[in-house]
Design goal:
The chain is mainly α. It is built from four helices and no strands. It has helices spanning about 1-15, 30-45, 50-55, 60-70. Helix 1 runs antiparallel to helix 2 (about 30-45) and helix 1 crosses helix 4 (about 60-70). The radius of gyration is 11 Å and the shape is globular. It comes from Streptomyces racemochromogenes. This is Phosphopantetheine-binding protein. InterPro entries: ACP-like_sf, PP-bd_ACP.
Length: about 70
Amino acid sequence: MIADGVRAIWCREFQRDDIAPDDDFFALGGQSLIMTKIQGAYIEELGVEVPMDQMFLNPTVASISAYIESHR
């Protein structure tokens, strides 16, 4: 399931285990370096490239997972 993969990536990059589907990237302390690492992980682990603008428009695990599923 895409959402599980996205959540695992976020948990690793934010170094925390308690990220929920509706947690906001920016509220978690997300910034450009973390975003770049997450983008790379999406490519390597999920096989999908997510444009930077979509990461801003879909700042939660749930919303970016839905975006990825609709563009696979």
